[in-house]
């Protein structure tokens, strides 16, 4: 956006100098307004809780009602997401407190206790911050004459339309844009129903499993934690359909997430490191993790060579290295440390176990 803005000022407006765009995430902008309003507000604003404090508050109310401790982390994540959606869409309790599932009943009870805690201690959580800012809105809060709200999934989201109306009422020119859609990719999601999406993903994984039974395959479909029991039933049906070809552990195919970020799983974190290395520099400690990753092939000798390579790089005071430099240095190191091999074995070759 900054690049396009600079190009317009330079080519269309024929300007030599101009003010830089001030861009920031919407959550950061709301936090900035809260901090400014806190200096002049009377009565005093509620104290804003940090994300860690919000998580602890949800944990306090959920610990005594969750039967399975392993599900607690996932349920905390679910409740935080649901709370955010309720605030963004200004949903009344009649829209979501239907008691149609155990998760729904647990959330409704915990959410009520969560709100009572906020009121009793005069607190506010980040999800409720936009509504607070709207209620205390003043014309002096936003210094800009024009505001561009960019990249929203749904332009009819009540929180967004409420913000747009408030800014307009304060005499500020507002423009809003949705997510950029790449041409030719708008029809990528072939299944509207999440169950159909999951079934299609499972069918794909089963076919891969039949073709390469010794390999492992991962299916990542986000934000389905609240449908865990239903998706487990789909997995059980799949096992029943192939009684002699699929093991029972297929029933637990979705249990790997449990509300944890993907980067907490070593395979995903190592892949993220690999992608980062392709586009920039890595610290030597990051290269050490990547070079010794079990997801790349190599026996004991190769591991020892890689470890010696890291020690050698450290002795050269190489704090940051990019992909090309590492490969060139590897060739130099291999030539002097493994003279019996005509060609140095490759640094990165995917293991057959992956």
Residue share in helices?
40-55%
Q: Name the beta content range.
A: 5-15%
Briefly note the structural class of the backbone: mainly alpha
Order of neighbouring strands in the sheet with most strands: 1-2
Envelope shape: extended
Largest sheet: 2 strands, parallel
Mean pLDDT equals: 77
Rounded to an integer, what's the Rg over CA atoms? 27 Å
The SSE string, one letter per element, is: HHEHHHHEHEHEHHHEHHEH
- Number of H- or I-type helical stretches: 14
Report how far the terminal alpha carbons are from each other.
39 Å
Describe what you observe in this structure:
There is one protein chain. By secondary structure, the chain is mainly alpha-helical. Among the domains are: 194-260, no CATH class; 263-337, no CATH class. Helix content is 51%, strand content 6%. A two-stranded parallel sheet has the order 1-2. Helix 8 links the parallel strand 3 and strand 4. It is extended, with a radius of gyration of 27 Å. Mean pLDDT is 77; it is low at 181-192 and 254-258.
């Amino acid at each position: 956006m900054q690049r396009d803005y600079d190009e317009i000022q330079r080519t269309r407006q024929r300007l030599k100098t101009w003010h830089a765009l001030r861009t920031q995430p919407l959550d950061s902008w709301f936090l900035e307004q809260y901090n400014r309003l806190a200096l002049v507000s009377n009565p005093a604003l509620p104290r804003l809780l940090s994300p860690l404090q919000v998580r602890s508050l949800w944990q306090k109310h959920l610990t005594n009602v969750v039967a399975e401790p392993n599900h607690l982390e996932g349920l905390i994540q679910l409740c935080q997401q649901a709370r955010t959606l309720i605030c963004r869409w200004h949903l009344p309790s009649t829209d979501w407190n239907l008691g149609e599932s155990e998760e729904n009943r647990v959330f409704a009870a915990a959410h009520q206790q969560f709100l009572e805690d906020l009121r009793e201690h005069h607190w506010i959580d980040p999800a409720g911050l936009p509504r607070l800012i709207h209620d205390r809105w003043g014309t002096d809060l936003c210094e800009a004459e024009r505001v561009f709200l960019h990249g929203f999934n749904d332009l009819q989201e009540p929180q967004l339309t409420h913000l747009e109306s408030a800014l307009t009422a304060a005499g500020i020119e507002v423009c809003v844009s949705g997510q950029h859609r790449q041409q030719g990719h708008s029809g990528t999601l072939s299944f509207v129903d999440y169950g159909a999406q999951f079934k299609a993903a499972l069918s794909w994984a089963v076919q891969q499993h039949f073709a390469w039974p010794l390999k492992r395959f991962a299916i990542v479909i986000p934000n389905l934690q609240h449908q865990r029991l239903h998706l487990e039933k789909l997995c059980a049906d799949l096992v029943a359909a192939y009684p002699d070809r699929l093991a029972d552990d297929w029933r637990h195919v979705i249990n790997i997430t449990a509300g944890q970020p993907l980067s907490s799983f070593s395979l995903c974190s190592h892949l993220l490191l690999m992608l980062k290395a392709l586009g920039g520099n890595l610290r030597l400690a990051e290269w050490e993790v990547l070079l010794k990753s079990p997801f790349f092939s190599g026996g004991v000798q190769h591991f020892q060579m890689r470890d010696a390579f890291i020690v050698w790089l450290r002795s050269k005071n190489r704090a940051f290295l990019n992909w090309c430099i590492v490969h060139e240095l590897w060739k130099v190191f291999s030539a002097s440390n493994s003279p019996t091999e005509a060609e140095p074995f490759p640094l990165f070759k995917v293991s057959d176990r992956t």
